[in-house]
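Researcher: Good morning. I'm working through a list of sequences from a screen, and I'd like to move beyond sequence-only analysis. For each chain I'm collecting a predicted structure so we can compare shapes side by side. This is the next one on the list. No need for commentary yet; just the structure.
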Amino acid sequence: MDSDDEQLLRGRIYGADHDHPGPKPGRRYAELVGGPLDGLLLDITGWRPEEIDDGVSLLTELGQFGPRGRALYDPRPGDPTRWDWVGDSP
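Model: Good morning. Structure tokens for this chain:
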């Protein structure tokens, strides 16, 4: 992925419709930091605290394992609005 691709992803919602890629009012988002999904926003509206604490495994073809691979993100201690990449998995 080149810098133009990275810029295109910034501010977009992970898994959002291409016609409506940006944040929506009244929703709660976490920014994904590092890794293949760097700069995307994850909609965590309605998530329970324990779900947030567990982090996420997100499907992506951009990671180390290609199509059907996953990128792993955990909430940053002290800043639940930013989730850090912790690795990829098949």
